[in-house]
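During the second year of the project, the team shifted from modelling isolated chains to modelling whole assemblies. The rationale, set out in the original proposal, was that interfaces cannot be judged from single-chain predictions alone. As a representative example for this report, we include one of the complexes processed in the last quarter. Its constituent sequences, exactly as entered into the pipeline, are reproduced here:
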Amino acid sequence: DQQVKQNSPSLSVQEGRISILNCDYTNSMFDYFLWYKKYPAEGPTFLISISSIKDKNEDGRFTVFLNKSAKHLSLHIVPSQPGDSAVYFCAASWGPYGSGNTGKLIFGQGTTLQVKP
Amino acid sequence: DADVTQTPRNRITKTGKRIMLECSQTKGHDRMYWYRQDPGLGLRLIYYSFDVKDINKGEISDGYSVSRQAQAKFSLSLESAIPNQTALYFCATSDLRDRDSKTQYFGPGTRLLVL
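Output from the structure prediction step:
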């Protein structure tokens, strides 16, 4: 049972354009969402996150949007750069600190982004 | 980021062999995790530890065991390796004191091939 889904295995965009990566989830208890970027032969690195009390969080070229009613989040990269080419994972978590679920992340399958020069 | 290190980085072993993957961190974080990554499946949690005396199973713990030797060290063992344990393994850490974030910080990974 895949609670976090990234239905697009790959995405190709031109340099300078917008990249939009999508993620859907099924568990309404999720209250915190993260995006990670992974280059080959490296571990995932944290990119940006959003709490369920917000619907948007922005950090430079990266913006994450959360639509709780649709159980959907998206990562926008504007403008896209060749160095953004990587695998992107969305992840979800739930529960306040102190609960047994705290800290556990559920990951999507990943989307490979290719930004062409 | 050398704050979380994993050894070995690559390993080839045979079916039935015992193998240990090691993780060390200098972040001072209390929480540590082991994940495996398989193509098309993302990262799945194997085990996690909230402190030295606390070990918990993740969603795919069968065939694995762990040891938290110290706050900074968390080892994953495959008691009798099988080919479907061929995967990329990641260790991660997080900080209980970081109450506004559930961010985990990952090591570089260990690529394991079981023949």
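Chain B touches chain A at residues 1, 4, 31, 33, 35, 40-45, 48, 50, 58, 90, 92, 94, 96, 99, 101-109 (CB under 8 Å). DSSP finds no helices and eleven strands in chain B.
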